[in-house]
Amino acid sequence: MDYENNGWIWEGVNYYPRVFGGLMVTAALLGLSTSYFGGIGVPYLSLPCSWSNLGIFHKKRSGKRRIRVYMDGCFDLMHYGHANALRQAKALGDELVVGLVSDEEIVANKGPPVLSMEERLVLVSGLKWVDEVITDAPYAITEQFLNRLFHEYKIDYVIHGDDPCLLPDGTDAYAAAKKAGRYKQIKRTEGVSSTDIVGRILSSLRDPKISGDHNDTEVKPQEENQSKASHIAQFLPTSRRIVQFSNGKGPGPNARIVYIDGAFDLFHAGHVEILKRARELGDFLLVGIHSDETVSEHRGNQYPIMHLHERSLSVLACRYVDEVIIGSPWEITKDMITTFNISLVVHGTVAVKSLNCELDPYEVPKSIGMFRLLESPKDITTATVAQRIMANHEAYVKRNAKKTRSEQRYYEEKKYVSGD
């Protein structure tokens, strides 16, 4: 018996001997179970805890084993839909392990990836809900790989969205996991997909020369209609979704608050790395996300590809970010520094140059010695990501069309089987 931890009992016996003695005798005579005795209580006497929690009559319970869940994907052109899927997956367990499909597997099953394995790894590892990453994961979860997940990685459940994931032969990529009874499904995030983003880029950034070269092809009219439709964002932001992505806590009273701003369009590995470096300079990282109008004014009418709330969620999902300002001003003022108690303003060396160079947005923090230029770890930008897609124009058009046909066939067969 631990006399020190249960000292309140002996103090009670000394001060209220009749009460404690009466309770013990009554329990013994009536043969009441400890659970029942703790449940009926005693009028006007509130016991500090139930008998089962006193730690007197049994050994301390051992810790509960942590549930490990697995979710895989290409995670090419990382967007808030990917982040929300991983957030939902993490909610189904205690630890989230993410399988990152190899470049070779993506080429074989979907077409050329936009981002390299190294870039995709930086993006996935930078998400606040991810605990571990398995690189070079297979596109299809075979029984052999499933056994590896269960035994080597101690995975309890395989997670995937309610959208179809089909192999080139039309079969379900998660059939083995479903057969083993270790599969759980989450709801797909509506309003965005990598296919949709490619369509937006092809629509807004298409070079006139490229368009002219395809005037006589059959795909041109269909491609134009698809691109125009896809450029309209279908995302409907809610306060609940923003809360789900947020850390839910502000800076401490003496926290060193670091501020960095930008468009953060087509959230990529370069963004993650510069945010990581910025966070290392303080206790709290505040990120300003420029409005769509501000981005268009300084980057051109073809930007942004992703809209304000889409970009805000992508930044909020990053593990190095504590809070964002949605629609932050281009110019950092003294009042803004005071309002948010900013200690340091930083900016990366790699960024798309503004079309309007009349004003230096960092003039105020520079004048008071609160500005620092950070060496960007990567030279990737939103423009270079978009140019990769433009350079492989036909390949991505075919990739999008292939995925659309595959999904249409899947839903038609599902509708036929259900009898709807």
UniProtKB/TrEMBL annotation:
GO terms in the biological process aspect are:
phosphatidylethanolamine biosynthetic process
Domain Cytidyltransferase-like, which positions?
Answer: 70-199, 259-358
The answer on whether this UniProt entry bears the keyword Transmembrane helix reads yes
- Key words, A-Z: Lipid biosynthesis, Lipid metabolism, Membrane, Nucleotidyltransferase, Phospholipid biosynthesis, Phospholipid metabolism, Transferase, Transmembrane, Transmembrane helix
**CDD domains, from UniProt?**
CCT (cd02174), ECT (cd02173)
Record's GO cellular component terms: cytoplasm
Pathway in which the depicted protein is active: Phospholipid metabolism; phosphatidylethanolamine biosynthesis; phosphatidylethanolamine from ethanolamine: step 2/3; Lipid metabolism
EC numbers for this chain = 2.7.7.14
Give start-end positions of Basic and acidic residues composition bias. 208-226
Membrane-crossing segments per the record:
20-45
This protein's record includes keyword Membrane:
yes
Region: Disordered; residue ranges are 208-228
**GO MF terms on file?**
ethanolamine-phosphate cytidylyltransferase activity
- Similarity-based family: Belongs to the cytidylyltransferase family.
Check the record and name the PANTHER family matching this protein. ETHANOLAMINE-PHOSPHATE CYTIDYLYLTRANSFERASE
Tell me which NCBIfam families the record gives: cyt_tran_rel
Protein name (database record): ethanolamine-phosphate cytidylyltransferase
- Native species of this protein? Psophocarpus tetragonolobus
The organism's lineage?
Eukaryota, Viridiplantae, Streptophyta, Embryophyta, Tracheophyta
